[in-house]
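2024-03-11 09:14:02 DEBUG pipeline.ingest accepted 1 chain
2024-03-11 09:14:02 DEBUG pipeline.ingest length=230
2024-03-11 09:14:03 DEBUG pipeline.predict start
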Amino acid sequence: MQIPIASATVAEKQIDEQQRFVNAIILASCVIILADASAGSNASILGINLEISDAYGVAAAILFLMTLMIAQLFARLSDIVLSSDEQEAPKVLASLFGHSWSFNPFSYFGSRPIAMLHASFGMGVLVFVWWLGLIAMVLLWGRAKLVGDSWDYGLWYAYIIAGILALAAIVHVQFAVRIRLAELARPSADADLQKIMRSWTHISLIKCAIAILFAVFGYWLFYQVTHIGI
């Protein structure tokens, strides 16, 4: 007996959860950056008031865990896309394409160039959010004047690895969507479905190109903060 699962609803809940985690990373990073700009001796991270000297370890651990959770949620999405049956798969894809989250990296609003362009900015913004968290961490590191032990460096590299895993999970979802579209379109004569399948490859490339642009901008901003000071 197969247990009935509303895959589209489950997929939508995964994206909802991702939205909450990303919003928390943005909030925590902005609070840290503003605390550094005001030269305060305290920082509030998600409602936790800390001395600057103690804030790095807490902030780095929180940012790492949230980024890791985001990677896990993206990995779940690819499993949901690939495991959904023929009746549920179109609903799953529709929930991914049309979710209202502004930073949804899987948005799809048609094959027109302008539609592909504005549907691709979510992935770029997510890449920049990761850089924003890294900037917040390096500012805390500098303000606390840490010498840096194995724990501090471990959290630093753990956050970097979590970001790479999250990006890899996003790309895996894109491949999963491409595979599912191909499976649905193969026995179908639906011209619209065939068109979506062909254009998904194009929009995936555009999303990756915009992500690279945002990554370059994030690195430039990171360099300005760490080497020049702004």
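2024-03-11 09:14:41 DEBUG pipeline.report The chain is about 75% helix and 5% strand.
2024-03-11 09:14:41 DEBUG pipeline.predict end
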